[in-house]
Amino acid sequence: MFKKVVVGLFCVLLCVGILAGCDDTVPVNAPVDDTEDTGGDSVSDTVPVSDTDTDTESDPPLTDEGTAPDEFPDESPATEPETEPVTEPPVIRIEVPSPIGRNISDLGEIPFPEEQMLFVPANHPLPIGTVFEVTFVGEREGDVLYIAPESLLVLHVSEGIDLENVTVSAEDKTVYLTFDDGPSPANTPRVLDILDEYGVKATFFLVGESVEKYPDLVREIYSRGHKIGCHSFTHVYADIYANVENMQAEIARWEAAVENALGFLPAERLFRFPGGSTICKEDGIRKMLAEQGWRAYDWNAVNNDCLLHTRPEEMTDEEYMKDSVISTLAYSFRMSTSPHIMLMHDTYVQTADLLPWMIEYMKEQGCTFGTLDQLESGWLHRG
């Protein structure tokens, strides 16, 4: 009905215009859209928009009768502003729960190509350890990872200081020779030669300051098949154990020194508390070490090279050290399910002197030798 009224009114006005000689004008009383432009996508309610409109700038839209409606404004309707195309996130995504904090034996449900997942340390034995960090190309939103297609998802796995110590068979007589505080230019080369002579591999817990001074010795230790562990950078108890941040800084400096010496960091993250774990009273330090994948080791046998100043006057250095090896190794064997870890220091010439006897004695007791990375987790003395 409205359309018919409009058409009729239009015809009347057209006739009046012709009679008055004004056939070149068409009165237009269209409303003006004075809505404030907010940059959005809204369109004035006075101008209906159809998906099928094919308007041009010169021709107004036509009614069904082919004439222009008088209520339509002279100006062409405003076009919608162009919008930026929406960038879709990379197609590969990991939904919650995030891999972080999860045991690597539980990661099978992650919808990510197995061939694109890399575990660090790469030689970590399943199913021990949890993921404490992930690196990837992409973005993170909360617990959701958006990962670029065809890129690697690197999962940093904690080998950890487990609350439960590693255990061994009661029949296991493997002895783990360990040397602290080196490298020492006066003694380490000789120790390495003796170990080579007997075909024995050991674990060297190095101090970062000495690593910086003697990088060639670090390379020599590693090239001969021995394992390297962290024994702090400074070996200053008051600084190391003051708080978690200090320990983290010590480890970071140690890692930088070792990486500079070797050109890389060893895959094994072996750690020994300077002075032993019982000196560390800050629980946060142990938690941090576990989260960062360090496996810590105390000892349960010694040659007491660092206590020679306490030996009885009637004993020689050699006698005192031999007695210490025999008695503490027997003590270690009584700890039937604990690994047998021998503490020495390659900073003492007396240790280099005694080492051939020590190896021969232990072989006579039916012992074999190993490196600490062969154990499944750490071992800390409980008392």
Number of continuous helical runs? 9
- How many DSSP-defined strands? 14
Task: Let me know the largest β-sheet.
Answer: 6 strands, parallel
Order of helices and strands: HEEEEEEEHEHHEHHEHEEHEHE
Second rung of CATH, namely the architecture of the domain at 174-374: Alpha-Beta Barrel
**Could you list the spans in which at least 5 consecutive residues all have pLDDT below 50?**
1-7, 12-58, 60-73, 123-128
Helix amount: 25-40%
Q: What is the rounded Rg?
A: 40 Å
Name of the level-1 CATH class of the domain at 174-374: Alpha Beta
Explain this structure.
The chain is an alpha/beta fold and 383 residues long. Among the domains are: 92-157; 174-374, Glycoside hydrolase/deacetylase (TIM Barrel, Alpha-Beta Barrel). Helix content is 29%, strand content 15%. It is built from 9 helices and 14 strands. The radius of gyration is 40 Å and the shape is elongated. It starts with a helix and ends in a 14-residue tail after the last strand.
How would you concisely characterize the structure shown here?
The protein is of the alpha/beta class. It has helices at residues 2-19, 188-198, 208-213, 215-223, 237-240, 244-262, 283-291, 317-334, 349-364, and strands at residues 92-94, 117-120, 131-135, 138-141, 144-147, 153-157, 174-182, 203-206, 227-230, 270-271, 295-296, 301-302, 340-345, 368-369.
What brief labels describe this structure?
about 375 residues, alpha/beta, TIM Barrel, 6-stranded parallel sheet, disordered N terminus
